[in-house]
Amino acid sequence: MMIELVTLMVMGGLSAPGSDLWVSYPGAGDDAPHVVLIAGDEEYRSEEALPQLGKILSAHHGVRCTVLFPVDPASGEIVPTCLDNIPGLEALETADLMVIATRFRDLPDEQMQHIDAYLKAGKPVLGMRTATHGFRNAKDGPWAHYANGYNGPKEEWKGGFGRLVLGEKWVAHHGAHGSQSTRGILAPGQAKHPALRGLGDGDVWGPSDVYRVRVPMLEGTEVVMLGQCLDRAGPGEDGDPLMGMRPGDPVAEGARNDPLMPLAWFRTYELPDGKPGRVFTTTLGAATDLVAPGSRRMIVNAALYLVGREVPEGGAEVALVGTFEPLRFGFGQFRRGLRPAAHALESR
């Protein structure tokens, strides 16, 4: 698959003074929407995916972006296994959209307060992949109700952040992890949805597998994309070990695709004592999923739609900005020794 490369030439600094723990990409004009992208998972390389999404939104659509990372406070380096520190969340105070791709975080009170205030204001949210199980807060702490699978006394929060805000919590892998990739199929009747502009069946694809979604829990939501599991078709043609992990591979037979699981949906969320807000959730979202232009287009289309920008009839421009060579998903496989500044816009 060809990967488009675009280098954005910028002059001057990358971020505001003192922001060496995160990166910022400029918007076009004083009225540019502000999108805050929050990375923080140990497996799917959100620390690589979200800077690329931020660069695309900035370079091609004039959106101001702030990208936050899990940072080791001792070294200042990006460490996905640092579960309790994502500096810069105060940026949500001026955000028009929160993009979140965390997994089992247990953030301190002063950081969780910014997320909670944003959600109570009913502002838009875009959740990716592991955000369905984005928090694992201590059971005896003030944010226990955000934890995946929460089943405590706050009835409205049953299931935690994923269930209340995004529409589903972690359930299970539905496709076979690491051997059955995902092909996106437009949901019936949704072909004209702005988030699907420029997309047809199969344009959205990723090597990450389909997540299981309990369909009854999505009542009241607008499912726009379904996930089709691809498979090896037996032991593999000529013993090909990659079968099932490429866009053109055979469709898995049987229960894997009957019925198809929701892959992306819109819904309205509302926290207790909060205002209602719109959310787009996709269980796609590994950094390697974003190699496919269609996968990037679905997410960027949705982001523009949520901030009130017109989505072009042919879909959003999503050419890659700078070099994007994401690592394969897996635990313990992140690039070590990098600080947020490593994700600066390239300049010449």
Query: What is the correct CATH architecture?
Result: 3-Layer(aba) Sandwich
Task: Give the neighbour order of strands across the main sheet.
Answer: 1-3-2-4-5-10-9-8-6-7
Distance between the termini: 27 Å
Mean pLDDT: 92
Main sheet summary: 10 strands, mixed
The H-and-E topology, N to C, reads as EEHEEHEHEEEEEH
Count of domains: 1
In words, what does this structure look like?
With 348 residues, the protein is an alpha/beta fold. Strand 4, helix 2 and strand 5 (125-128) form a beta-alpha-beta unit. 14% of the residues lie in helices and 16% in strands. The protein has a single domain, classed as Rossmann fold (3-Layer(aba) Sandwich). It is globular, with a radius of gyration of 19 Å. The model is unreliable at 1-18 (pLDDT under 50).
Question: What's the structural blueprint in terms of helices and strands?
Answer:
Blueprint: E1 22-25, E2 34-40, H1 46-61, E3 64-68, E4 97-102, H2 109-120, E5 125-128, H3 161-166, E6 182-186, E7 205-206, E8 222-229, E9 261-269, E10 277-282, H4 293-306
Parallel strand pairs: 2-3, 2-4, 4-5, 5-10
Antiparallel strand pairs: 1-3, 6-7, 6-8, 8-9, 9-10
Give a quick precis of the structure.
By secondary structure, this protein is of the alpha/beta class. It contains 4 helices and 10 strands; from the N terminus they run ββαββαβαβββββα.
